[in-house]
Amino acid sequence: MVIGTHRPTKLVIDRQAIKTNIRQEMKRLNDDTEIWAVVKANGYGHGMVEVATVAQAAGATGFCVAILDEALALRAAGFTEPILVLGITEPQAAELAASQQISLTVGSLAWLETAATELHQTVLQVHFALDTGMGRIGFQTPAQLQAAEAYITEHSKFNLAGIFTHFATADEADTAYFEGQVKKFNTLMASLKERPHYVHVSNSATSLWHAACNGNVIRFGVAMYGLNPSGGELRPPYSLQPALRLESTLNFVKQVHAGDGISYGATYKATKDEWIGTIPIGYADGWPRRMQGFHVLINGEYCEIVGRVCMDQLMVRLPKELAVGTKVTLVGQNGLHAITLQDVATYAETIHYEIACGFATRVPRTYQN
């Protein structure tokens, strides 16, 4: 892994923003409800271990990740809190997970049967996933769930520590589908003989807008990073503090003349004498190629991205000649204006999750506050 410490492009992560978002959410929760910080995908691009450290200090009592390797990295970093792998792990890794006290998600009886052959000395903590309408993983019927519960009761190699579902539309104004999922979840839960210790249905969106559904764990993900799960469709109950800025500097400045082309395909041509600045960031760093025509902020002014975004560089039209080394803000506040991850995502016709998670490892993460 190469990190670009010898160029000015960097992500700046505000620790205090993450703490503030967690503590604001904690104020709304019952005393018996825990926050487990979702730090998968390198902490949504913010840095997994660093975010976990901040979340722990702010009051998070557990962590959620997507794959076993992320959980193992947290254990290697010294975290002893409960860790749940939200995705399906190969059952052949059951013994490894058990030895590290990592909880795995189970969505079928067949998985349990295979994992049982891999377990020897250590009991594996598991959480049952219920597919109530997400259509991704999990038990779908009471009969499937009851068969898995019975298997665990008969086999001491497992402990059913928790059960959960994931809502597909908790971030939308129309609640009809959400309410249908809640009904199915309750039906499935009623089929169990014994309720596990951890019952969790709330991701960020569910906790923000459907808090009445909260179990005793909140899987606090995108809102922890200060991002609105709904994009802009719903207003959060408190002000979310964005934790990420993306900054660089001008590393080359030149004047071009009418008719001169910029970048691959010469898709931009100057209409008069213009000052063009080059910034050392491109699509290999996670800045999408389709951002031509968008803008960055320099000295508090919007400067248009002209020509196609290259793999490692992009060009902008400047209001005048500016010095090499002038600060450039791609995401964040600069002067009186700001560019948000949502602004970037809207222009790129995607969601801010994808933009944040897409920043490459070669872009260094620096931390403040």
UniProtKB/TrEMBL annotation:
Gene Ontology CC annotations of this record: cytosol
Binding positions for substrate per the UniProt entry: 136, 311
Cofactor(s) the protein requires to work: pyridoxal 5'-phosphate
Gene Ontology terms for molecular function: alanine racemase activity; pyridoxal phosphate binding
Gene3D superfamilies: Alanine racemase, Lyase, Ornithine Decarboxylase, Chain A, domain 1
Matches recorded under SMART domains: Ala_racemase_C
Keyword Isomerase: yes
GO biological process, one term: peptidoglycan biosynthetic process
Pathway stated in the Swiss-Prot or TrEMBL entry: Amino-acid biosynthesis; D-alanine biosynthesis; D-alanine from L-alanine: step 1/1
InterPro entries noted in UniProt: Ala_racemase, Ala_racemase/Decarboxylase_C, Ala_racemase_C, Ala_racemase_N, Ala_racemase_pyridoxalP-BS, PLP-binding_barrel
Record keywords: Isomerase, Pyridoxal phosphate
CDD domains assigned: PLPDE_III_AR
Pfam families given in the database record: Ala_racemase_C (PF00842), Ala_racemase_N (PF01168)
EC identifiers of the protein: 5.1.1.1
Positions annotated as active site in the UniProt record: 40, 264
Residue numbers carrying N6-(pyridoxal phosphate)lysine: 40
Segments crossing the lipid bilayer: none
HAMAP family associated with the record: Ala_racemase (MF_01201)
Family stated for the protein in its record: Belongs to the alanine racemase family.
Protein purpose: Catalyzes the interconversion of L-alanine and D-alanine. May also act on other amino acids.
UniProt name for this protein: Alanine racemase
UniProt lineage: Bacteria, Bacillati, Bacillota, Bacilli, Lactobacillales
